[in-house]
Write a structure and sequence with these properties.
The chain is an alpha/beta fold. It has 10 helices and 15 strands. Strand 9 (209-214), helix 8 (224-229) and strand 10 (232-235) form a beta-alpha-beta unit. Helix 9 (268-275) runs parallel beside helix 10.
Length: 322
């Protein structure tokens, strides 16, 4: 589905990698505790939460500053009403070996997590929820082949990160794990194992959002209990009805990929026609938001149908300064 993920897998010791991830999510951020409220975004905005369907955007943090998601609003709204409801910081990773699984952040995710007061909280101050995106990372260990101890450990690492950094939840995308490279001794990948991880995350994050990218060999077979534990489902790009067993209120019928050049999958005609028949559906999703006027145009292909409103852009571009 996504691009820019073929990150080089380090041959450094496991201890060093786990330590780096631990520090990124557990380092005490004194600036958070002592934050001067006058430094927060002071725009008079109405908290997101009243509109439906919700609008979720994935931010490729390797090259886009997440603050750009907070520059789209409904024209002529007063106080200003944000268009985006949820932002996915995409992405951190699951890595592992035959006995352990750990949460890994590259340098961009690490910087954001260590600077939430300037890169996350301004979005939250506008009523936008910010979630940690998780993706496989070519180590042979993923969300669907963990043993019970690894499920408990990995879920706790994720929960600690989300809670310590004040994030609003987590998204799982079961791609690029390379299960064919799994170390000897791990369980065979299964929807049952993936379901157990989702349920453990729900146990540890009872009030947070849990979302999934509905893709791969194991996600579509998760249990009814796991489905119930999930807030929103994002199928692959296009227009698709909710499958049997998943309420439409949790399903993103319309999912869009924006290219770096401003194109989209699906095309404008399908986006417009899909959004014209959206009764009961709970969400719409855009992957790879770009801070341009072209993105505003894309949003307006469905905004009038979904909310009877027009999207405006402030024109402010937040550079990737990390």
């Amino acid at each position: 589905m996504k691009t820019n993920y073929f990150r080089t897998i380090s041959l450094l010791s496991i201890t060093v990698m786990m330590s780096a991830a631990f520090q990124a999510c557990n380092k005490q951020a004194e600036s958070m505790a002592n934050e001067d409220v006058t430094s927060r975004n002071s725009i008079d905005t109405r908290a997101v939460g009243v509109k439906t369907p919700k609008f979720t955007v994935y931010i490729e943090t390797n090259d886009i500053n997440p603050l750009n998601a907070g520059e789209y609003y409904f024209c002529n709204s007063s106080p200003r009403e944000e268009v985006v409801d949820h932002v996915i910081l995409f992405a951190s990773n699951i890595r592992g070996n035959a006995t352990s699984a750990w949460l890994h952040h590259n340098q961009n995710q690490t910087y954001i997590l260590n600077n939430v007061s300037t890169l996350v909280q301004p979005l939250q101050n506008k009523g936008i929820k910010v979630l940690l995106g998780l993706l496989g990372d070519h180590t042979g260990v993923g969300f669907a082949n963990l043993n019970s101890d690894m499920i408990d450990s990995f879920a706790q690492q994720v929960a600690t990160c989300v809670n310590t950094k004040g994030l609003d939840g987590v998204l799982l995308d079961d791609e690029y794990a390379r299960y064919d490279l799994a170390p000897a001794g791990l369980p065979t990948p299964s929807s049952s194992i993936l379901s157990s991880l989702i349920l453990k995350l729900r146990e540890l994050l009872p009030t947070k959002k849990i979302m999934v990218f509905w893709f791969g060999n194991y996600m579509p077979g998760i249990s009814p209990a796991a489905i119930n534990a999930i807030d929103y489902f994002h199928p692959n790009y296009g227009c698709s009805e909710s499958p049997f067993g998943i309420p439409a209120s949790k399903w993103s019928k319309l999912t869009i990929r924006e290219t770096n050049q401003g194109g989209t999958t699906p095309n404008q005609q399908l986006i417009h026609s899909c959004s014209n028949d959206y009764d009961g559906y709970g969400e719409v999703m855009l992957f790879n938001l770009r801070p341009t006027s072209t993105t505003t145009n894309i949003m307006n292909w469905f905004s009038d149908n979904l909310w009877e409103k027009t999207v405006c852009w402030t024109g402010t571009v937040h550079p990737k300064n990390y």
